[in-house]
# Entry
Amino acid sequence: MKWPLRYSVPGLVLVLALGLGCTTDVSAPTEVPVAASRGQLGTISQIAPELLTCKAQSYVVAEKIIGPRGGSLRIGRHRLEIPRGALASKVRITGEQVSGSVNSVRLSPEGLHFAKPARLTLSYDNCASVRLLKRVAYTSELLRILEVPPSEDYPEYEYVTGAIDHFSRYAVAY
# Structure
């Protein structure tokens, strides 16, 4: 049976419209991953980092005045090292080991920037065992990961060290 031409054109338009209307771009990424990281086998992982789940750590506050000669501050299980020349003048540094289901520290005065990166070491010896490399993560107060600075994981000692250039809140991610 042959279709008359007057039915063929509208039929073709209808098939094309239905076909285009049913397509989606589900496979396209909706956002850029926060950061790529090196996995255990040296491959690059494009999975966005997650915060490591831990047993609650106690709340601890530590303060110290640190100046141009640098210095360090122990904040409960964690440590901040500010190198010589990172600060132009003396500053009262406050570190809080924040209690909760992630190992997190809050450093202030918030927004303080360094001329040279400081080193933040976060312990994860009270956290769930995850075989992936750990990283230091810069987070919001609601623990949303904002950035992942360069980090070095030391699984045999259960801590991670990261280079930070400003004060805010940081947590252990993987």
In short: The two ends are 65 Å apart (CA to CA). The longest strand covers residues 113-123.
